[in-house]
Please model this.
Amino acid sequence: MANLETQILDDVIVKSRRKMLSLSATAIAGLAVGGTSMANAAAAYTDADILNFALNLEYLEANFYYLAAFGTTIDKPNSASIAAGGPSAGIPITGSVGTAGTVSGGSKVPFVTIPVASYAIETAIEEGKHVLFLQSALGSAAVAQPAINLGTSWPGLATAAGVSGGAGFSPYASDATFLLGAYVFEDVGVTAYHGAASLLTSSSNLTAAAGIMAVEAYHAGLIRTTINYLDPTGGLGLVTATNQISALRAALAKAAAGSTANPYDTNPDDFGLATFSVSLAGATSVTATRLTDADATNVIAFSRSTTQVLNIVTGGGAINAGTGATISPATGVFFPAGLNAGPNGFK
Amino acid sequence: MDKLDKRLNNAFSRRSFFAGAGGMAAATLVAGCGGLSSTTMASGKYTDTDILNFALNLEYLEAQFYLYAATGKGLQTSDTTAGSASTYQTVGTVTPGSAAAVPGLTAAQQEIVNEIAYEEQEHVRFLRSALGTAAVPMPSIDLSFFGPLAVAAGITGPTFNPFASFDAFLIGSFIFEDVGVTAYSGAAGLISQAGVTAGYLNAAAGILAVEAYHAAYVRTSLTGRAIAAGSTSAYPYLGIANQVAALRAMLTVGASAAPGTTGSVETPLALPTSLTTASSIVAASPTNAVGFARTVNQVHHIVYGSPTVGVAKGGFFPNGTNSIFATTTA
Model:
């Protein structure tokens, strides 16, 4: 795809980045210490604060997939969700911290293809289990479900991303639009758990977070693979839409980057499904898909700070665009009243 | 265990001399001066460098497999050399077996193989770069082990060759990717606090996520192609993948329950047959949907193709990994 000139440029960039990294542990340590000390200085948070942040995101994801797959929210199981392996009692949405909010919008997708329908069902059940797992791990410290907007949030988000026909966008309209809706969430889930991993102090919490991150990455890989299979040449417009969504996420993350940037961050920190050019075993460049959302040099998946994730899921609601100041609680798009959090939690 | 050992020994009879010799030698070694080894392990005297080097061994294997599949050639020599301060100085050789560029790929399939090959190649380069002079060289790698592995998994028919077709390639990839995910998950918790501060945990977690993206690609492709074919008999590769998962379970000492059952670290693939049945793309606990982890020993059992404790080499690594964890201790 790339012409020779851009390829040479790419190679130069790759080599110079690599050179920086070849300074090895010292360089990495230098980079990271800056980030970590800033993060530590910011707040006295606990593992519970971090897990509760994750729980807010899981409430969002689980409700999206439950609505798409079964037409119901997580607290109101129906015959379809129970038949698929979901709990018959419904997933609790009340917690010891914060007031349970309601979910607006969302409806069952009229799926026509077995792969997409079966993936939606699998993902719904798994995200529901993540909610239950985190509630159980947090015990009396678990936050309640925040207010969640899964209806009018979508056209606004799609318009902001520049997706064609964005003002009328609904992820519940078809198999294809559902995949784009899912695309919005999964890569973000990976970056959120990835960013949180280094902040956790308990090794059992770390192992659990790594395990959930892996599942989010499985979901993200699943979605990206399916979009690639559906629209291998981009003729259906899905590839363009993924590029636009990724670009919006990257812009929102960059606006909130601050001083807590992660050591392997690049800008942009997000890639859609457009192909890119790679060199294999020293040979001339060939074209490759981008089923993995990771930086092109070290191929380490991106990680984001809680503020970066908040800014994405609230559509810029975490950062004052004029002053760059952090807004708390961050509100907007999927979380109209912000997240539920403990006294020092992330919101 | 006896039955399993027997089955595996029969399956690996072609190389039983080497496997047996290696196992015995290792067992002798452990009996003779194993005290040192086990004391070292018990007191946690491994370093973050040891953990990253363990990962590097796996990345060498994955990169060779995918690069051969994409291009018919393996890693450049410059990506396999020993760091000057490494305990290991001998660069291994690759036994290619049937390794070759996978024939008959569509353009879209070729681009996907290219992507995974590139990403594993870059993982090798990243880890070597992060490790600097401490980077271990590539150990000897045997890409002809797929055949015996397939026999051990109970896969019948002609000698299994992952380079023969796109579907066979998916099976070859399947052997590695879920293992990569669980290896990094298991390793993440071993990294020291200093290593966390140094960014190693972030790097390991980031590579873990990439391995999960790859695993999802492989599992989604196998599932999607089975759905398109309409049945598991029309698309036998779904069942073959599950046989591989069952073999991995048998080799995973300490967590050898059948895939999908309590105590297992494997999730079998499923064939959704209607708009109301779930797929089984994600490999995770059926209870809480948290991804699995494997210990360094369990990962070695799989890549050596041996559940026997004390084995130091075999399978994909005919001379063992260049790692402090090379001899299984549990």
In short: DSSP finds ten helices and two strands in chain B. The longest helix of chain B spans residues 200-229. Residues 1-5, 7-43 of chain B have pLDDT under 50 and may be disordered.
